[in-house]
Amino acid sequence: MELNEEEKRQLFQVDGDCQAKVLDELYMTARFTRNPEQRDMVRGLMAKLRVLSDEQCMDLVKDIQKNYHLPYPRTMGERIALARQQSGAEKLKGHDIRTDLFSGRETAARPGRSHWTAGSASSRCLFP
What we know:
Elements: H1 5-12, H2 19-32, H3 36-50, H4 54-67, H5 76-87
Helix pairs in contact: 2-3
C-alpha cells in the first residue's frame, strides 16, 4: 500500500495495538481537528486501512513505527513516538499498565505488606 508523507506521519504516532483501536484514534483525530486538510487526509487514511485485515493493518503500522524517520518532530505525540522508536521499548497494552500495583510485591513505603490483602475494606486501600 502506498501512503504519502502526511499519512505516514499520522500512523507513526498512532498508539493502538489492533486495527479497531488505530481506526478509533484516527476517527477521533478527524473529528476534533480544526484543520480541514488534515481531516480529509485522516478520513482517506481510514478508508485505506479499513480494507486491510487486522494483521495486515498492524503489520503496516508496526513497519512505519519502526522504520519511518521524521524530518523533525512537530508535536508532542511525534516526540513521544520518536522516543519510543529510539528506545526500542514495547508498547504496553491495557492489562500490562497496572501489573505492579496488584502483583503483591512489597513496597518501600510499607515493608511487609502487599498492595492487595484480604480483610476489611480499610486494609485493601491502595494508597497508604
